[in-house]
Amino acid sequence: MSDLVAVIIPAGGSGVRLGSTLPKALVQIAGKTLVEHAVNRMAPIASQIIVAAPLGFEEEFKKLLGDEITVVTGGVTRTESVKAALSHIDASHDFVLVHDAARALAPTSLAMRVVDSLRAGEKAVVPGVAVSDTIKRIDKDNYVTKTPTRSKLRAIQTPQGFKRKVLIAAHKSKDEMTDDAGLVEERGVSVKVIAGEPEAFKITTPDDLALALKYLVGGANEDMRAGVGTDAHAFSADSSRPLWLAGINWIGEVGVDGHSDGDVAAHAICDALLSAASLGDLGSNFGTDRPEYAGASGAKLLQETLVKISDAGFSINNVSVQIVGNRPKIGARRAECISALSTALGGAAVSVSATTTDGLGFTGEGKGLSAIATALIIRSNK
Ligand code: CTP
Ligand code: MG
User: Which of 170, 194, 217 is the last residue of a domain?
Assistant: First the structure.
């Protein structure tokens, strides 16, 4: 009998409740995506890790996680994502842990305690914490049908551990459950609850993301830095030049002249982030002496800037950019702008506004565009 452990990480959800432009598992905190945080914390106890990625994001996950991790295509539900991963487990593994990417900060020590219980002979082990709210069962019309005794209730987390054969047998069921222990219980297998951990909470809403960042920044959570950036470019005399602004292409509008694509909003945000981190500015990082950035898109520069500030130990709290000019009108495409900018910044909170200048100055005279941005970043420890 071997006692090797395989870990399945369902990361195939889209994160509707988080409201990000990226699948939730690709949202970053402290310079790493949630799925990387989860994988890193499980790696010490696993000899095989299988991640279920959202359809269409498999290659991105592979690039991010490297060759050691098996990436499979997730299903339309969590249960189906786990099923998709199960068939890839090498049969040498006696134990399987199933762990939500959304519980990105669940510590290695928790996974170790789950494994210890399995090695001590349990067939199914789940972490759980006492609930502080009274929980009521309701019917379809919202009338209470039952109030279970609170002291006997536990809020259940992941990683959940199983003997491999027990989990495989349970997944023969066609039922949909929000966790794997649910399927195992249905077959009459005893499921042991061990003490959970506060850090194993599920990142579901934007508030949860802020809490996760607090856990990561630890005692340094007062170390916030603000930055400011501006950029301006003249409209091109070449009316065929495309306009790139706030990460999107504005068909029918005349573009601006400049090194790179001239996206003033993206450039102002890069400068704001670099200035907040005291890392210089766009020119000193990607200037004309760096020919590889000639013609670089605004999105590319935002991505590179995110890498630089992450390497320096910072996470983005939020960025805000205001575009100044007579045209294009931003309002109708504001959501697209926010989506493009946020995606390039690893799912960071972005706001986009715009103004004209009452006919004054080069923007008011319709000669060009400018943008001003602020960024708030937080120093993180891990
Ligand atoms: N998950 C999955 N495949 C799905 C749905 C969810 O692998 N079809 C994963 C998620 O990626 C997450 C875990 O199951 O790691 C728990 O799901 P949840 O927290 O609900 O994440 P999402 O479904 O992405 O979020 P939401 O319900 O807000 O859309
Ligand atoms: Mg979900």
Answer: 217
**Residue 54 in contact with ligand 1 by CB distance below 6 A:** no
Would you say the CB of residue 100 lies under 6 angstroms from ligand 1? yes
CATH of the domain at 112: 3.90.550.10
Testing ligand 1's pocket by substitution, the residue of 39, 76, 100 carrying the most ligand atoms inside 8 A of its CB is: 100
The number of CA neighbours under 13 Å toward the Cβ of 56 is: 5
Instruction: Look up the CATH number of the domain holding residue 355.
Output: 3.30.1330.50
Confidence at residue 381, expressed as pLDDT on a 0 to 100 scale = 61
Nearest ligand to the CA of 15 is 1
Owning domain of residue 374: 222-380
pLDDT at residue number 357: 95
Ligand 1 atom nearest the C-alpha of 102 is: 15
Q: Return the SS3 of 59.
A: helix
Residue 64 near residue 71 (C-beta atoms within 8 A): no
- Residues 195, 265, single domain; the answer is no
* pLDDT, average across residues 158-186: 97
Q: CA nearest 321: which of 363, 273, 287?
A: 273
